[in-house]
Amino acid sequence: MHREQLPESWLKLVRSQETMPAVEEEASYPYSEYYWKAVACVLLSGRVRARQEDGQPNRSELDRFCKEANFNQHYFAGIARCLVANGAVDASFGAYRRGANLAQLVG
């Protein structure tokens, strides 16, 4: 595969720039801390019910709610799975209830 050389003006610009050390802080997402609580509240409110067989959120209800609330459906589903696996939310009998570890999440 033939690789083209960059124009000399670009190379000159790149060489003239000072390098800076990378920031070692973790990237901060503005609502990530509250998103877990919001998903737990939605599950416990009954807006999105659990599937009987595995306790995962009902996909059609999840899609409908996320579209109305402007939430990312895949992120919501992933957090719901984590909440169920962590024991913060109990998914029994097709409905979500408070789990033993919910107090740790709410803090």
Q: Could you please describe the fold and organization of this structure?
A:
The mean pLDDT is 85. It contains five helices and two strands. A hairpin with a 2-residue loop joins strand 1 (89-92) and strand 2. Helix 2 packs across helix 4. The longest helix is centred in the middle third of the chain and has 14 residues, at 32-45. It has 107 residues and is mainly alpha-helical.
Question: Can you give me a brief rundown of this structure?
Answer:
The protein has 107 residues and is mainly alpha-helical.
Itemize the secondary structure elements and their pairings:
Blueprint: H1 8-16, H2 32-45, H3 59-69, H4 73-86, E1 89-92, E2 95-98, H5 102-106
Antiparallel strand pairs: 1-2
CATH topology: Arc Repressor Mutant, subunit A
Order of H and E elements: HHHHEEH
Share of β-strand residues:
5-15%
Pick out the low-confidence regions.
Answer: none
Mean pLDDT: 85
Record field, number of beta strands = 2
CATH architecture: Orthogonal Bundle
Terminal CA distance reads 56 Å
Rg for CA atoms: 22 Å
How many independent structural domains? 1
Helix content: 40-55%
Number of helices: 5
CATH class: Mainly Alpha
The gross shape turns out to be elongated
Q: Biggest β-sheet: count, sense, barrel? A: 2 strands, antiparallel
How would you classify the helix and strand content by structural class?
mainly alpha
Strands of the widest sheet, in order across it, are 1-2
